[in-house]
Amino acid sequence: MKAFAMLGIGKVGFIEKEKPVAGPYDAIVRPLAVSPCTSDIHTVYEGAMGDRHNMILGHEAVGEVVEVGSEVSDFKPGDRVVVPAITPDWRSEAAVRGYPQHSNGLLAGWKFSNFKDGVFGEFFHVNDADMNLAHLPEDIAPETAVMLCDMMTTGFHGAELANIELGATVVCIGIGAVGLMAVAGARLKGAGRIIAVGSRPVSVEAAKFYGANDIVNYKDGDIVDQIMDLTDGKGVDNVIIAGGNSDILVSAVKMTKPGGTVSNVNYFGSGDLIGIPRLEWGCGMAHVDIRGGLCPGGRHRMENLIDLIRYDRVDPSKLITHKFHGMDKLEEALELMKNKPKDLIKPVVIID
Ligand code: NAD
Ligand code: ZN
Q1: Bridge-partner residues for 107, per DSSP?
Q2: What 3-state class would DSSP assign to 193?
Q3: In this predicted structure, what is the pLDDT of residue 215?
Q4: Band of the pLDDT at 150, cuts 50, 70, 90?
Q5: DSSP H stretches of helix in the chain
Q6: Cβ(58) to ligand 1 under 6 A?
Q7: Residue 330 alpha carbon to ligand 1 centre in Å
Q8: What pLDDT score was predicted for residue 71?
Q9: How far apart are CA 50 and CA 340, in angstroms?
Q10: What one-character DSSP code corresponds to residue 127?
Q11: Is 304 exposed, middle or buried (0-12, 13-18, 19+ CB in 10 A)?
Q12: Cα 35 from chain centroid?
């Protein structure tokens, strides 16, 4: 089969590979819509997973089941499915503890284009289909639903980790696709005031659409000063980080009130240690929690997110700024994610 792959660090291209085979609990899926991700850029151009050769890229897909293993009970060929970026081993100790993202190792629930081939092929393999796939309702377009696989589950996880109290003042730092879903998640979680930190007009407009009341441009000066001014020197209850490098944690702690939470879903790509400002963290006694997590995957999570779309709680289609048709366009779509032109939030490739 044909697939779009990482050939080595900094190199991508189309390759031919064997069609994957389903084990008794697995499914083989044909993609209907896929989306490249900032994480694919970290993988290819920053070597985030190490050097990989001919590894099929991609972890965001909606597709049609073409084959299932003998023990799969809830899915059959022809079913349209949402496939989460994170497909844990549900029979693992980490899953039993409530952290399936880390099944069989730290972050190891993330298998696509990491421990195995990703979804940018004519076909791809899904482990434990009954636990990891979700049926796609007829009335949701595949290109909309592909925003669930990673962007929505991650942004919403940022809001979940932040422990938002009804009426709380919440800052979302970074308003790419993940941060925008964090804004939407904060609103759903009952935030009072939402302050979004970003700069690109397309993202600023989307942040307002998803519920941001104030916009802070990090290019206009120190964001701690700007947010302290906006809050009359009080600071905020919760900060969700979805952009920037690890220095952003310093700013986040500085602007958070005692009892508040800093929640991170951003990928910190460099440095051995991450700094926390000692004095502002109350010399270690500020009661400011710092939390971070890989997005939840699996069937139940996808079904919940599907309902948020179906019952009009959130419309992730506003994230899609670029639509392509045909697998051949994957390279162009990935290139967009790499170069991040001003008008881009998220591209999708529809496989007609
Ligand atoms: P993105 O690049 O589209 O968005 C990040 C945004 O942050 C960009 O618009 C960028 O301009 C902005 N930014 C950069 N520096 C900033 C600063 N100092 N202050 C405020 N904003 C700043 O990426 P995305 O797809 O939205 O993903 C966001 C992050 O989440 C990435 O690091 C990605 O790897 C990570 N991610 C994590 C998970 C997870 O499970 N935790 C899943 C998917 C993506
Ligand atoms: Zn992704």
Answers
A1: none
A2: strand
A3: 98
A4: very high
A5: 38-45, 93-96, 129-132, 142-145, 153-161, 177-188, 201-210, 223-230, 248-255, 298-310, 330-339
A6: no
A7: 21
A8: 98
A9: 23
A10: S
A11: middle
A12: 11
Report CA dihedral (303, 37, 174, 251) to the nearest 10 degrees.
100
> Which ligand ends up closest to the CA of 40?
2
For residue 42, give the ligand nearest its CA. Answer: 1
Strands of the chain, DSSP E: 2-8, 11-16, 27-34, 55-56, 61-68, 80-83, 124-126, 134-135, 169-173, 193-197, 214-216, 236-241, 256-264, 289-292, 320-325, 346-350
User: Is 295 near ligand 1, meaning CB less than 6 Å away?
Assistant: yes
The whole-angstrom distance between residue 10's C-alpha and the CA centroid of its chain comes to 22
Categorize the per-residue pLDDT at 277 as very low, low, confident or very high, splitting at 50, 70 and 90.
very high
pLDDT over 90 (residue 321): yes
Among the bound ligands, name the one nearest to the CA of residue 178: 1
Q: Which two tokens stand for residue 150?
A: 């990673």
Per-residue pLDDT, 49: 85
Q: Give the pLDDT confidence of 210-243 residue by residue, as tens digits.
A: 999 999 999 999 999 999 999 999 999 999 999 9
Q: Whose CA is nearest to atom 20 of ligand 1?
A: 174
pLDDT in tens, 83-124: 999 999 999 999 999 999 999 999 999 999 999 999 999 999
Nearest residue to 84 via CA among 232, 305, 330, 287? 305
Ligand 1 center from residue 16 Cα (angstroms) = 32
pLDDT mean across residues, the chain: 97
| Domains recognised in the chain with CATH numbers | 2-146+315-350 (3.90.180.10), 154-292 (3.40.50.720)
| pLDDT computed for residue 23 by the predictor | 98
pTM, whole model, 2 decimals?
0.98
